[in-house]
Specification:
Shape: elongated
Strand content: 35-45%
Structural class: mainly beta
Order of helices and strands: EEEEEEHEEEE
Radius of gyration: 14 Å
Number of strands: 10
CATH architecture: Sandwich
Number of helices: 1
Helix content: under 10%
CATH class: Mainly Beta
Mean pLDDT: 94
Number of domains: 1
CATH topology: Immunoglobulin-like
Distance between the termini: 22 Å
Low-confidence stretches: none
Length: 109
């Protein structure tokens, strides 16, 4: 049986601060959509009753409102990150670093 966990952390590289209350959507391999919102430290990991299995996933970070409110606008209304859960590791961490005109991500720990 698969037993995986997934977390994320969103940081604004312009301000150097976490991004709180940012909506996130997770698309599972079967197409089901699960939503959440980052906490006051820009983190999220509570996907509820979802069982994560091996397969292809997509995280969508809804950045438009945040960038508009904090920076007066931005180039990316959302950021999609596609990744694969394999049997190699039980915990997956997908951070997002954003600014009004750029973003980056990496496989965290």
């Amino acid at each position: 049986m698969d037993n995986y966990s997934l977390s994320s952390h969103v940081l604004d590289t312009t301000t150097g601060k976490p991004v709180a209350n940012l909506p996130i959507e997770l698309t599972l391999p079967n197409g089901k959509l699960v939503t959440g919102t980052t906490d006051s430290d820009g983190r999220f990991s509570d996907w509820g009753e979802v069982t994560l299995v091996t397969g292809n996933y997509q995280l969508r970070f809804m950045t438009k409102d945040y960038l508009q409110n904090q920076h007066g606008g931005g180039f990316y209304p959302f950021v999609d990150i596609h990744f694969v859960i394999t049997s190699e590791q039980s915990h997956y961490h997908v951070p997002l670093l954003i600014s009004p005109f750029g973003f980056s991500s990496y496989r965290g720990s």
